[in-house]
Give the backbone structure.
Amino acid sequence: MALAVAANGVFAGLFFPRFFSSLAVRTPPALRARVTTSVNAAISATGPLGFVGAGLLLHRATSVTPGFVLVVAAATLGAAIVATAGAAAPTQAGAASADPG
């Protein structure tokens, strides 16, 4: 599990720059500031909830393993959501070929 947590840390550094750059490029300029602010607020707001949840879990547990399981499960769920959303979104080439004009 520690390897999974370490891999999450490494790959987050590869994911987040691409995520925020695609967010900036795909958002219309008139909405870019509002969308970026909303995404940053949503991402930041979940941090304290995770700390509270982990604290309550570790307070009741006799080892740190449940905490590692919680982190791995949350990271896997987040990756699955992003992968599903990325697969459902049309590509730029697909959107251009669908345009009749």
Observations:
- The chain has one domain: 2-88.
